[in-house]
Specification:
- This protein has about 525 residues and is mainly alpha-helical.
- It has a domain at about 40-305: Cytochrome Bc1 Complex, Chain C (Up-down Bundle).
- It contains 17 helices and twelve strands.
- The strands form six sheets. The chain has a two-stranded antiparallel ribbon.
- The longest helix has about 40 residues, at about 410-450.
- The chain starts with 10 loop residues before the first helix and ends in a 22-residue tail after the last strand.
- Bound molecules: protoporphyrin IX containing FE (2 copies).
- One protoporphyrin IX containing FE binds near residues 130, 135, 140 and 147.
Length: about 525
């Protein structure tokens, strides 16, 4: 019998054809691989969040092999001599073992913790980019809401993870959480005893938090992130205005091969940075804190950075108890307002913002082109105000450390925080609004008089003038939320092209693929005012 010769070169093609005949994948796959993505550094922030989440999953699974989620008391007998012979929970002992006795355990713990910090930081900065560029506007309000939920689910992931090692800091955090739950009127006691299975700390909270941390919360995050990124695919990404870019198309790179290779490389970079941090920089050295004992909590016990604003709001809240004379009398403790009501308001405001802005500006159209922060001074001012509010609260979360290091009275710090929280946000709004208007005026001046050259000329009559270089005809004008903006904005010397490209990518890449992207939207009326984009308002 004659055997057929094995044609290695034809194998990939044959396999692909075989797979397509069975699963009909070629058409959808071609569509996916040909998808065009706009390119800008600020679009990488969401990716940093995504990649650090993947690293959290990988390192978290490793930790799960060695971590013991139990509060049964054991006597520590591992390698860390100062704690040998100390009674502690099995959870704390296993975390110490991961740090000292499991091969590669410490770097994995530290990578897990650093990536958690990076994950939350990336989420917050990504959220700021979405806000300040107006990417949350119609049709992307749903993704903004899903994003806002992602922040809080990430917050819970971080908090439950921080509690797992069951060291002194974990216990302090859990104690505060139980106090917050207890402060909720009517249901507080029930909620607390249901979660802790009786009085704090009980014997079950660590195993419950473990299930939440390694199963429920990651599952929720995976589901929400899938819908979030799925929506970015179906709604298509926004882009900065530029030559050839309109509200109805997408200009950028195809998914395959360039975009996918770039993303793969970027993932490696993020992984490498986190591995370096996990290997070189100590984080959460739980062996210094000892097992949790309520009476050894010290000053300078700090949560991770993204929880500090709530710590700050608790510290700034005056000790106002509200007594309600029902039955034997009822008390609402002051803790309830800064830790339950305030986050509730913050979530509500964030979720509502796209709709509030659309209502205020009466702009209900779809927007696929981004705005620069200066183009919408009111929004940028509101963002600066919110950011200042968070920064004052976060700094107040460390007010004991600041008071101690700078020899300031802690009471003075508390009062500075209270006054700062009321005065600084409106001030930030005012200053930011003015800066935006100033920048707009500058743009207009460049448009009218050209670019400053720095060359001073003396005229025959003795006057000095600065020579302005008119914008050349090659500098197309771009439609920008109704305003006409010159392509060349600032004279930045030799750094100019680099910096301009970084902040304001107006060059069309050679042979950039253009896809018909978005469904047609109503055209922008010429020079229409959007929001308070009018500098004379
Ligand atoms: C786990 C957290 C998150 C992950 C992994 C994530 C991931 C991403 C990715 C990969 C993109 C596309 C690339 C980009 O524009 O950066 C994106 C876009 C987007 N994200 Fe997120 N994100 C997260 C949280 C948030 C939050 C907190 C918000 C806002 C509250 C948000 C709102 C949006 C919106 C509106 C878009 C569409 C932007 C556009 O088309 O210009 N995301 N997200
Ligand atoms: C967004 C997701 C996650 C965040 C923000 C997060 C955050 C954290 C943090 C801050 C810690 C404390 C680390 C330390 O001891 O210094 C921790 C511990 C831990 N995490 Fe996660 N984590 C996440 C996902 C996961 C996943 C998916 C798993 C497993 C499947 C996991 C398993 C663990 C385990 C076993 C510990 C205890 C390790 C120890 O003893 O230190 N985590 N997590």
């Amino acid at each position: 019998m004659k055997r057929r010769k094995l044609d290695v070169a034809a194998m990939p093609g044959r396999t692909a054809r075989g797979l397509d005949e069975r699963f009909n994948g070629a058409t959808p796959l071609r569509k996916l691989l040909n998808k065009v993505f706009p390119d800008h550094w600020s679009f990488l922030l969401g990716e940093i969040a995504l990649f650090s989440f993947i690293i959290l999953l990988i390192t978290g699974v490793f930790l799960t092999f060695f971590y013991e989620p139990a509060m049964t008391e054991v006597i520590y007998n591992g390698s860390y001599a100062p704690l040998r012979g100390t009674p502690m929970s099995a959870a704390y002992a296993s975390s110490l073992n991961i740090s000292f006795d499991v091969r590669g355990g410490l770097i994995m713990r530290q990578m897990h913790h650093w990536s958690a910090l990076l994950f939350m930081a990336a989420i917050v900065v990504h959220m700021m980019r979405i806000f300040f560029t107006g990417a949350f506007r119609k049709p992307r309000e749903t993704n903004w809401i899903i994003g806002s939920l992602l922040f809080w689910v990430g917050f819970l992931a971080g908090f439950t993870g921080y509690s797992l090692p069951d060291d002194g800091l974990s216990g302090t955090g859990l104690r505060i959480a139980s106090a917050i739950m207890l402060s909720i009127p009517v249901i507080g006691t029930w909620v607390t005893s249901a979660i802790f299975d009786g009085e704090f700390p009980g014997t079950i909270i660590i195993s419950r938090f473990f299930i939440a941390h390694v199963l429920l919360i990651p599952a929720l995050l995976v589901a929400l992130i899938s819908v979030h990124v799925g929506l970015v695919f179906t709604q298509k990404h926004t882009q900065w205005p530029g030559p050839g870019r309109t509200n109805n198309n997408v200009v950028g790179e195809r998914m395959f091969p360039r975009y996918i290779i770039k993303q793969g490389g970027f993932f490696m970079v993020i992984f490498g940075v986190i591995a370096l941090m996990g290997g070189l920089f100590q984080i959460n050295p739980i062996w210094y804190f000892g097992p949790y004992e309520a009476w050894v909590v010290s000053a300078a016990s700090q949560p991770d950075w993204y929880v500090m604003f709530l710590d700050g709001s608790t510290r700034l809240m005056p000790a106002w108890e509200i007594h309600i004379p029902i039955g034997d009398g009822y008390v609402i403790p002051p803790l309830f307002w800064p830790t339950v009501v305030l986050p509730g308001i913050l979530v509500g405001l964030a979720v509502m913002y796209p709709f509030l802005e659309a209502r205020k500006t009466k702009d209900y159209r779809s927007h696929n082109l981004l705005q620069r922060p200066r183009d919408n001074p009111s929004r940028t001012g509101v963002g600066a105000m919110a950011l200042t509010f968070y920064i004052v609260l976060t700094l107040s979360g460390a007010n004991d450390v600041i008071a101690d290091k700078f020899h300031i009275s802690l009471n003075a710090m508390t009062w500075a925080g209270r006054i700062g929280l009321l005065i600084l946000p409106p001030l930030a709004y005012y200053i930011t609004h003015r800066i935006c208007l100033g920048l707009q005026q500058h743009d207009r001046e460049v448009l009218a008089h050209g670019v400053e050259t720095g060359i001073i000329r003396r005229l025959p009559d003795g006057r000095f003038v600065e020579v302005h270089q008119p914008l050349s005809s090659g500098h197309e004008e771009l439609e920008y939320a109704g305003w006409v903006v010159p392509k060349k904005m600032n004279r930045l010397g030799a750094l100019g092209p680099a910096i301009r490209g970084f902040f304001y990518p107006i060059e069309k890449p050679a042979e950039a693929p253009v896809s018909p992207g978005h469904p047609p939207v109503e055209p922008l009326p010429e020079r229409e005012k959007i929001g308070s984009g009018d500098q004379r308002s």
